[in-house]
Design brief:
The structure is a single chain. This protein is α/β, with parallel strands linked by helices. It folds into 3 domains: 2-135, Copper Amine Oxidase, Chain A, domain 1, CATH 3.30.457; 142-244, 3-Layer(aba) Sandwich (Rossmann fold); 286-408, Rossmann fold (3-Layer(aba) Sandwich). The protein is built from 15 helices and 23 strands. Strands 5-6-7-8-9 form a 5-stranded antiparallel β-sheet. The chain has a 4-stranded mixed β-sheet with strand order 2-1-13-12.
Length: 413
């Protein structure tokens, strides 16, 4: 956890330094070592690049009405000017910065454009400029390692069975939902997922149903029983398993790998960049806050015992990013106790309808401050329990509205 927050703090520092230097001295950026000092603009603390700079890189740049299109043979951006909306190939995204036209030139979010194109963005302190350096693309064969096991994908799959709701959500978010031919009964988002054939639950899906579909790849998490995975392999189908990530950076990495497997590199990078920029913006706006309310996410409660997100979970991390303190940071994993809950007495409790109703009707929970102050909030628990883009795109703002409503209202996404 500490490592992740050091990375995020550095990213925040980079934003401040970059904005102040560019604003003060007009210094621009270098692309693969070539200095590009012009064609940048600063707006509301964000750095944007002119379309003409991209034209010099070989892109076609066109403006028609309120649309600005940037494209080459591999990728097409379509920005809606004066909004934070953009379409990259076949997916639509919202960003934390708006594109716009100024003096006959379109200006587009620099970091988002270059990260989507596969560049690493860093600060060159010695020369006082932003450095954009091209990274190597993830290409076939693609390897995913999980708990010491390597899964290798040699070519783009045409058909997929998903054994985890988070996988299903990411596949759709990457614009590859048409490849999904099977899903678990818990894969309920987006709405189009309901049209896909079910193969049972996550842990013990029907091997017969999977074989009947006979996909190129079966994708899931470590929740699925190993004996099922072995039978899938024995039947000649490829399996790719990735354990549920503990931290948000791991979710980003998996999204990029999954994007590469599905031949959606540009879209995957755009999706991850959009999420990172939102996290960075929230961190910047929360930099000077002193009040951080304590919050408890209910995973399970009542007669089944107390379950929540401990310190080593992406849920705990998103609570911190949103300017709160996770009540259950005194444990790891998911098991908690009623005694700890009462002793730590969180200011805010949030969770799914069933769990919140169970707490409200339970005599043991009435002593909690959150219960007495009516700070027990029902949310769509799927948004927070699945490591998918919704955690950032929707969950982050939901938490901000709980913890720091004034800041939530000031966001562009």
């Amino acid at each position: 956890m500490k490592k992740n927050f050091k990375i995020l703090s550095f990213a925040l520092l980079f934003v401040f330094v970059f904005v102040s230097v560019v604003s003060a001295a007009g210094i621009g950026l270098s692309i693969d070592g070539l200095v590009k000092s012009d064609n940048l603009d600063i707006n509301e603390g964000r750095t944007l690049l002119a379309g003409s700079l991209l034209e010099n890189m070989g892109f076609d740049v066109e403006k028609e009405g309120n649309k600005a299109t940037v494209k080459n043979e591999e990728v097409t951006f379509e920005f809606t000017l004066d909004t934070n909306k953009v379409r990259v190939n076949d997916i639509e995204l919202t960003l934390e910065a708006k594109s716009y036209e100024k003096n006959g030139e379109v200006y587009l979010p620099l970091r988002f454009v270059f990260e989507t194109l596969g560049y690493n963005i860093s600060w060159d302190g010695e020369n006082k400029r932003v450095a954009a350096n091209k990274m190597e693309d993830i290409t076939y064969p693609i390897t995913i390692e999980d708990n010491g096991v390597e899964y290798v994908v040699d070519k783009e799959p045409e058909t997929i069975v998903s054994l985890a709701p988070s996988v299903t959500e990411i596949v759709f978010a990457l614009g590859a939902g048409d490849k999904l031919k099977g899903r678990t009964q818990y894969c309920n988002y987006p709405e189009q997922a309901s049209e896909i054939q079910t193969v049972g639950n996550m842990t013990d899906p029907s091997i017969e149903a999977i074989i009947d579909i006979y996909p190129d790849i079966v994708m899931g998490t470590s929740f699925t029983k190993q004996e099922i995975l072995n039978k899938v392999n024995e039947a000649g189908m490829e399996v790719v398993i990735q354990s549920t990530p503990n931290y948000i950076n791991e979710m980003y990495e998996y999204t990029l790998k999954l994007g590469a497997i599905l031949n959606k590199n540009y879209v995957a990078r755009a999706l991850v960049s959009s999420m990172k920029s939102k996290v960075g913006t929230v961190e910047m706006k929360l930099n000077d806050i002193t009040y951080k309310p304590t919050a408890y996410f209910v995973v399970g409660t009542g007669q089944w015992g107390e379950y929540t997100a401990g310190s080593d979970t992406f849920i705990s991390e998103i609570i911190k990013i949103a300017g709160g303190q996770n009540t259950a940071d005194d444990v790891t994993g998911w098991k908690y106790s009623l005694e700890k809950l009462i002793d730590n007495d969180p200011e805010i409790i949030f969770g799914g309808q069933f769990n919140i109703d169970s707490m409200k009707s339970g005599e043991n929970y009435q002593v909690l401050s959150a219960m007495q102050n009516d700070s027990v909030i029902v949310v769509n628990e799927d948004i927070f329990s699945r490591p998918s883009p919704r955690l950032i795109n929707e969950g982050l703002k939901i938490l901000l509205e709980m913890f720091h409503e004034d800041i939530a209202n000031d966001l562009n996404f």
